[in-house]
Amino acid sequence: MVTPTPDTQDQFDQFEDEENEQQLGATASGRKRLFSKELRCMMYGFGDDQNPYTESVDFLEDLVIEFITETTHKAMEVGRPGRVQVEDIIFLVRKDPRKYARVKDLLTMNEELKKARKAFDEVKYVGE
């Protein structure tokens, strides 16, 4: 049997620290993963394995966060300084037909949901 030396003990401690970080869902930068559950479902829906590699999900999340950050910074430069408005996002995606169509669909759906909620609340209020 080999007795651990102080150097090997440090290696074991370091390994345990890395395991604890991975279990908590933290990244190397110490940031918590926000979209991993949704990204796993999306990856499966687009043909990946039901349980994709954690590294793949983390990499995709890094790309998503980077895209959101860059788009937000660009939107802050376009309109009023320091503020992001819907019109700024529309302006940024206007030349990309797929993104523009998706933004338009989401905004239309948002308006329909607001109207439906309002109608539901009015019916509920009158019924009481």
TrEMBL record:
Record bears the keyword Protease: no
Biased composition (Low complexity): 1-12
GO molecular function term, any single one: protein heterodimerization activity
Sequence similarity: Belongs to the TAF13 family.
Subunit structure: Component of the TFIID basal transcription factor complex, composed of TATA-box-binding protein TBP, and a number of TBP-associated factors (TAFs), including TAF1, TAF2, TAF3, TAF4, TAF5, TAF6, TAF7, TAF8, TAF9, TAF10, TAF11, TAF12 and TAF13. Interacts with TBP, and more strongly with TAF10 and TAF11.
Protein name: Transcription initiation factor TFIID subunit 13
Annotated spans, Disordered: 1-29
Subcellular location: Nucleus
PANTHER family: TRANSCRIPTION INITIATION FACTOR TFIID SUBUNIT 13, TRANSCRIPTION INITIATION FACTOR TFIID/SUPT3-RELATED
UniProt keywords, alphabetically: Nucleus, Transcription, Transcription regulation
Native source species: Papilio polytes
GO cellular component: transcription factor TFIID complex
Keyword Zinc applies: no
InterPro entries documented for this protein: Histone-fold, TFIID_TAF13
Entry-linked Pfam families: TFIID-18kDa
GO biological process, one term: transcription by RNA polymerase II
Role of this protein: The TFIID basal transcription factor complex plays a major role in the initiation of RNA polymerase II (Pol II)-dependent transcription. TFIID recognizes and binds promoters via its subunit TBP, a TATA-box-binding protein, and promotes assembly of the pre-initiation complex (PIC). The TFIID complex consists of TBP and TBP-associated factors (TAFs), including TAF1, TAF2, TAF3, TAF4, TAF5, TAF6, TAF7, TAF8, TAF9, TAF10, TAF11, TAF12 and TAF13. TAF13, together with TAF11 and TBP, play key roles during promoter binding by the TFIID and TFIIA transcription factor complexes.
